[in-house]
Specification:
It is a single chain. The protein starts with 6 loop residues before the first strand and ends in an 11-residue tail after the last helix. 17% of the residues are buried. It has 218 residues and is α+β, with helices and mostly antiparallel strands. It is 36% helix and 29% strand. The chain has one domain: Sandwich (Jelly Rolls), CATH 2.60.120.380. The strands form 2 sheets. Strands 1-8-3-6 form a 4-stranded antiparallel beta sheet. The chain has a 4-stranded antiparallel beta sheet with strand order 2-7-4-5, with no helix packed on it. It contains 2 helices and 8 strands, in the order E-E-E-E-E-E-E-E-H-H. Pfam families: EMP24_GP25L. InterPro entries: Emp24-like, GOLD_dom. It is found in: Membrane.
């Protein structure tokens, strides 16, 4: 299972979108137990409604491993894997959301975050005996499992970095949007004040036009 699962999808109200990734049997030979790990960001394009989604993680047999409802902003899941096969993460946008939900699956991967006793042991003896023992199948299997576990852990680190970068980009977009909205309403307010002030000045000047006379009757 690789970290190349990193996509952004738009889910309309009442629809469900799923993504899947296959976990090979080799991953279950690493001590510690494999876990499905992922991070999700949720946003929308509507100015009037805030979308929310229900997120589910499914096992290769279709069993639900994890669920969270009413995800408005972000979430993180980390659940134990149940054997090799295709794992899915599904996003459901209910009708109550009333608007499209933009779901950013920052990463969806597998990693042994809780390692067991899988350290590489350096054999003792002379150079020849060490070379023979290192070349043995058992020792090569230990090396392969350790390298695979380290690769998975690096995938999670890279995914976390992408997640922080996406959050920073989203905060910047929110700040820029708020700035534009604030400038627009401030300009509109200043324009309205100028118009009201000009109308008041013209009204006052109209009372003092030259040639206007007032008659007083007795």
């Amino acid at each position: 299972m690789a970290i190349h699962i990193a996509v952004k999808v738009t889910v309309p109200p009442g629809r469900t979108e799923c993504m899947g990734e296959t976990v090979e049997a080799d991953h279950f030979t690493i001590p510690g137990g494999p876990r499905i790990d992922g991070r999700v960001l949720v946003s929308g394009n509507s100015q009037y409604y805030v979308p929310f989604v229900t997120i589910r993680v499914l096992s290769p047999t279709g069993d639900q491993l994890w669920q969270q409802q009413h995800v408005y902003s972000e979430t993180h899941f980390n659940v134990g894997a149940r054997g090799p096969g295709s794992y899915k993460v599904c996003f459901y946008n209910p009708w109550e959301s009333r608007t499209d939900a933009v779901v950013d699956l920052v990463y969806f991967t597998l990693a042994h975050l809780r390692r067991g006793t899988g350290a590489i042991t350096i054999p003792k003896g002379t150079q020849d005996t060490r070379n023979k023992e290192v070349a043995s199948q058992d020792h090569m299997d230990d090396v392969r499992r350790t390298i695979l576990g380290m690769s998975e852990f690096m995938q999670v680190i890279q995914g976390s970095q992408k997640y922080l970068q996406r959050k920073l980009e989203r905060h910047q977009q929110t700040m820029e949007s708020n700035k534009r909205r604030t400038l627009f309403y401030t300009g509109l307010e200043v324009g309205a004040l100028l118009v009201v002030g000009l109308v008041q000045v013209l009204a006052v000047m109209g009372f003092f036009k030259p040639g206007r006379s007032f008659k007083i009757s007795v």
